């Protein structure tokens, strides 16, 4: 049986058998060398992942849960001390009932939550940085299949994800149709659209414009005085601000903030460049600050470009042909009614292209795309009736 | 009578009497010192402007045409060799008939098309740069009133504008209600919203992040080898890309570009950071390139922050109170049905707050906000019937 290694310490040691361990605690699995879809190569890919529950004897109760762009493996609290980002959805007795299902949440290839990414050191100890290969969602799925092999999961009961996680779930079905029983695609689409690409371009450019980016090799950099340089936190912050606007809705922002000034600050109070802020600016500053404290800028670029590359029809004769072959997978498609990044029409189109032309289930929320995180419970009834029966 | 000066040459000379001259040719008018709304001061403000047609004896046929954020004074070709940006709308026999009306188009305060802005030199010849005061749309209107005085226009027949030009027109009515006969506000709103402020913040931050910005004092800067530095063109380009997305619509971008690669480029073809582009990226690159070749980055910041400051109700007891006092002005409100920067609902709200509660006229276009430029002719019938009778 395959084992996982403590890659971060550089030592090879037994920790847990791959499929057994405490719930909601990060483990890592060494998958071996990997040749990327567009030509890159790395001698070793490690996948960070967490699990909840127990795999049953015939391996039929495994659920693969795919996180979104800046998400991580910590979906639910489990045995850890830290809340998960979908605690209301995954756990004992929840929609994805970890008393019944064995849930696996891998960090995406190129990420910074345990899986090999640009911040991972090479064998000489130097972070890969700009040398990290161009990565597609298909690459991510292929290395996750190695994890599935190691876990003894030939076929997932369900693969599920929202946003970029939905794209990952869909790519799983297209790449390994005989290994996916149910595929739940929430607030995602068959292929990234021109507008999603456009918003993404701006975000990657903002990071690259930051003088601290240093062409992607900013790890360990120091300033003129020898102190550690901050990295491209300003550029990453701008990227996050823009992304966050697309994750929410205009009415929500107007209702929450309007034109209010931030506390004692005065957006009109000063001549020149050091004016005070509006509340909505302070809010976006806060969103930016939170992200840059927890996310690597190179991973943000790699994953954003992976999402730009998302196209279930690439190399498969187009989306329609690719999806028409998936009659062996049961699909569940859902959208947020106010989503303006992954418009409901895009979920409707995906559903129309599927052999079963399933109905699109709707999360009703005024806040936009992020409704897939905040209001996922609205899908509880439909998911229990159709998928997690 | 006041005169205008050739400010760009630094010499004082008679050129044209203020109100007379060839149509569609830039002139400049020196307005004297000005104290800005939030406390700044400049010893001299010059307004660049163009005119078309002739002012009649009683001064009753004057139309003030206000351009948008990156617009300029060259609305119509006139006697020049260069097409104007609203040639189909302004000219002999057009909706704004220059055989009947005297049209004046001033460059906004803080701009870079003839009016004093950050790129204007001080008396020592050094561009104002970071010393340019914080500017509001109200400031712009107040200095334009001095131009109106000099032109002998006590009351405009009509003040008209779209987008930021619409905000300028509305502010004219609110600041000088007895000097505005008709006020035409197209694709604009009573006060900038949280979301408009949010998009604007990202744009100004992108410019400031550019290492070539140098705190706003990049004019005349040189690189390490002594050659002229490019200025913050990368940051300004990112700002323009984002703005441009908000000016258009998702369906338009999807229809025009989809996921197509740009010519021989391959968005998947290379590992690392030098991949090829999607068509939509090339399109945005082109939009960015066009703007940075014609617009000053500091002006972009100053005007963007002026637009953030737009609030017809500021210091007037709120929008409702401010607008309720404008019963002496005849309003014409129009919106683009697919606009997602100045949503139709915001035009509807503006109309509801006006004493006459006028109907909102619609430009029907799939492309979004820019419909106010590309499809303005759709308002021809209504404007001839109600305003330019």
Automatic annotation (TrEMBL), chains A, B:
- Report the function annotation for this chain: Transfers an acetyl group from acetyl-CoA to L-homoserine, forming acetyl-L-homoserine.
Entry keyword Acyltransferase? yes
Q: Mind telling me which GO cellular component terms the entry cites?
A: cytoplasm
Q: Where is the AB hydrolase-1 domain?
A: 62-373
Subunit (UniProt): Homodimer.
UniProt-listed SUPFAM superfamilies: alpha/beta-Hydrolases
Alphabetic keyword roster? Acyltransferase, Amino-acid biosynthesis, Cytoplasm, Methionine biosynthesis, Transferase
Could you identify this protein by its name? Homoserine O-acetyltransferase
State the compartments where it is located. Cytoplasm
Q: Which InterPro entries match?
A: AB_hydrolase_1, AB_hydrolase_fold, HAT_MetX-like
Give the UniProt family note. Belongs to the AB hydrolase superfamily. MetX family.
Binding-site residues for substrate, renumbered to this chain: 240, 370
Q: Which domain of life does this protein belong to?
A: Bacteria
Q: Which residues form the active site?
A: 163 (nucleophile), 339, 369
Q: Which gene does this sequence derive from?
A: metX
Substrates-to-products reaction catalysed: L-homoserine + acetyl-CoA = O-acetyl-L-homoserine + CoA
Q: What is its EC number?
A: 2.3.1.31
Please name the source species. Answer: Zafaria cholistanensis
């Amino acid at each position: 049986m395959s084992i996982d290694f403590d890659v971060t310490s550089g030592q090879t040691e037994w920790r847990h058998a791959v499929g057994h361990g405490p719930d909601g605690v990060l483990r890592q699995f060494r998958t071996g060398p990997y040749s990327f879809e567009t030509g890159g190569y790395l001698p070793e890919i490690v996948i960070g992942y967490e699990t909840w529950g127990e795999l049953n004897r015939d391996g039929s109760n495994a659920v693969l849960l795919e996180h979104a762009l800046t998400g991580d493996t910590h979906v639910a609290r489990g045995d850890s001390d830290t809340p998960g980002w979908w605690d209301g959805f995954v756990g004992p007795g929840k929609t994805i009932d970890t008393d019944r299902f064995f849930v696996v949440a891998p960090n995406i290839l190129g990420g910074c939550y345990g899986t090999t990414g640009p911040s991972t050191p090479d064998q000489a100890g130097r972070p890969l940085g700009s040398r990290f290969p161009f990565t597609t969602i298909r690459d991510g799925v292929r290395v996750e299949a190695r994890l599935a092999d190691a876990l003894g999961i030939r076929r997932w009961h369900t693969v599920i994800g929202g946003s970029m996680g939905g794209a990952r779930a869909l790519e799983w079905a297209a790449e390994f149709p005989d290994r996916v029983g149910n595929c739940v695609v929430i607030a995602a689409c068959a292929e990234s659209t021109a507008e999603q690409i456009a918003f993404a371009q701006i975000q990657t450019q903002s990071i690259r414009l930051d003088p601290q980016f240093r062409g992607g090799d900013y790890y360990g950099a120091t300033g003129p005085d020898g102190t550690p340089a901050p990295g491209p936190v300003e550029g990453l912050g701008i990227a996050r601000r823009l992304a966050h606007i697309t994750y929410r809705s205009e009415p929500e922002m107007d209702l929450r903030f309007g034109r209010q000034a931030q506390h004692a600050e005065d957006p009109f109070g000063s001549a020149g460049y050091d004016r005070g802020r509006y509340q909505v600016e302070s809010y976006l500053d806060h969103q930016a600050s939170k992200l840059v404290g927890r996310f690597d800028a190179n991973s943000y670029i790699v994953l954003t470009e992976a999402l730009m590359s998302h196209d279930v029809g690439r190399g498969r004769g187009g989306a329609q042909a690719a999806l028409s072959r998936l009659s062996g997978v049961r699909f569940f498609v859902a959208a947020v009614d106010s989503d303006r990044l992954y418009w409901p029409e895009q979920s409707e189109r995906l559903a129309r292209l599927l052999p079963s032309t399933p109905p699109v289930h709707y999360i009703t929320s005024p806040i936009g795309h992020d409704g897939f995180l905040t209001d996922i419970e609205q899908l509880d009834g439909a998911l229990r009736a159709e998928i997690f029966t």
